[in-house]
Amino acid sequence: MERAGSEQNKSSLPLWLLAEVSYKCPLHCVFCYNPVDYARYGSELSTEDWLRVLRQGRELGASQLGFSGGEPLTRPDLEILVAEARKLGFYSNLITSGVGLDEKRIAAFKEGGLDHIQLSFQDSTREMNDFLSHTRTFDLKQKVGALIKQYDYPMVLNVVLHRLNIDHVQQILEMAEQLGAEYVELANTQYYGWAYLNRDKLLPSLEQLQRAEEVTNRFRERVGSKMRIFFVVPDYYETRPKPCMSGWGSLFLGVTADGLALPCHSARMLPGLTFPSVRDHDLRWIWNESEAFNAYRGDGWMKEPCSTCPEKVKDFAGCRCQAYQMTGDAANADPVCDKSPFHHLVTDTVERVRIQNAAGESSSELFYRDDANSLRLTDTVKAPSA
Amino acid sequence: MALTDDAVLEISRHFRFQWEPAQQMHVLLYPEGMVKLPDSSGEILKRVDGTATVAQIIKDLETAFPGADLRGDVVEFLEHAHGKGWIRTK
Questions:
Q1: Does B51 contact A at CB distance below 8 Å?
Q2: Which of A145, A44, A54 is nearest to A92 (CA)?
């Protein structure tokens, strides 16, 4: 039975199931969207838990499955989950840094029916010099890249851009070409979790952004169709919000390492909502009935200027987490929208960062995502609702 | 690109064609995405199996759905699917 609140989304199914199987990660990226207090969370789901989640998700209609984290390869049972996913009929995607991907594992993934591997680059963290000087990280990526080709996967690279690496787009693209990438996603950082904490250090200037786009366009012209390049701009420079998750509870269902079901990657930060655990509830109830998944479904919850805005059907009022982070109320319009009375919070941030950089000021520390920082920072930073 | 009658077609690498019970329709799945297929397109792609030629696919469809002249529509869809990279010639 559908609840009245979800009536307008009756036909919507959680087509995308994201399994963030572990918060463990060998890397310490400053732009990570994981929650800052991840080190305080409870134990990881068991293999049995995940198998149950996969079965329930598939029954509910999910067809795309992402294995992510943290670094999903830290789970020694990933091979089991991959094989079950294929049996169930998922199209499964492994989203990985490649650290820990050796021939034995990739052979098992292929055998088990993994469909796709997205290899991400973490340059610009502690590995940046490494990367730019083509040493250890580059060697690893080359090795993993060769394995990906050898096992007949498409070569899909994801590089997160920000102020500290965006001027190297040319080198990044040349490296991608050298690796034989078929798809490259140059994704500017989205400011959640660790990235939000490091925002003043990571936000590129408009000039940097424009230069990077020019370089990308020239590169596209040269390589033609052999390499498709996607360039995702940082939404702080936009005047309309992104259609976050295609709407809350519309097609995305994420499950965290410790078992919480979330309508978006970052929803855990939102106050006043209790996100259900897959340990206590099945996915069908969670998707259809839980208060959390119905909280911002449809448009009944919207306030002005969204509730009467003709564009609400296109962008769903943007991102709830961004609205909460910047305005203190998740039901407000995403302040990226220039119709929002809080839009100045975005433009002020851009301006503040511009002035800081022009003055050569270093106003804030750069926080690496690691357990020690997670514990240290969440003594003082307001912990998101657990 | 025009497809000849004797072209043998298969679903492209990295695409998967399957029936989705929850949606009651055929879909094409690819990295992080999906194409939902109307019934007629599903019936056509069901017959793209790496052995059948374009002519055989048309003949088979005309047997399954007698009375209709399907050639034009089938060829049009196959060329569309080929242009999109969903299917390829063997």
A1: no
A2: A54
Q: Is B23 touching A (CB cutoff 8 A)? A: yes
Q: Note whether A316 and A247 are within 8 A (CB).
A: yes
pLDDT tens for A176-211 read 898 888 899 999 999 998 889 889 989 999 999 999
**Residues β-bridged to residue B35:** B28
* Range A37-60 average pLDDT: 95
Q: A266-278: b or e for each residue (b if 16 or more CB lie within 10 Å)?
A: bbbbbeebebbbb
Nearest to B54 by CA among B30, B13, B85, B82: B82
**Rounded to an integer, what distance in angstroms lies between the CA atom of residue A369 and that of residue A30?**
6
- Would the CB atoms of A60 and B22 count as touching at under 8 Å? yes
CA distance A264 to A244: 8
**What pLDDT is stored for residue A75 in this prediction?**
97
Over the Cα atoms of chain A, what is R_g? 21
pTM metric for this prediction = 0.90
A contacts of B34 (beta carbons < 8 Å) = 15, 63-64, 91
Kindly report the nearest CA distance between residue A305 and chain B, in angstroms.
32
Those residues of chain A whose CB sits closer than 8 Å to some CB in chain B are 13, 15, 59-61, 63-64, 66, 89, 91, 93, 115-116, 118, 152-154, 156, 183
Residue A8 predicted with pLDDT over 50: no
Which helix (H) or strand (E) is A324 found in, with range? Answer: helix A320-327
Beta-carbon-side half-sphere exposure of residue A377 (alpha carbons within 13 Å):
21
What residue of A is the nearest CA neighbor of B25? A61
- B31 and A154 within 8 Å at the Cβ level: the answer is yes
Q: Do B14 and A116 touch (CB under 8 A)?
A: yes
For chain B, the residue count is: 90
Reported as a single tens digit per residue, the pLDDT across A10-22 is 458 999 999 999 9
Q: What string of DSSP letters covers A255-314?
A: E-TT-BEESSTTGGG-TT--PPBTTTS-HHHHHHT-HHHHTTSSSTT--TTTTT-TTHHH
Quote the ipTM score: 0.90
Q: Is the peptide bond before A70 cis (omega within 30 degrees of 0)?
A: yes
Task: For Cα atoms A284, A288, A289, give the angle at the middle one, nearest 5 degrees.
Answer: 105
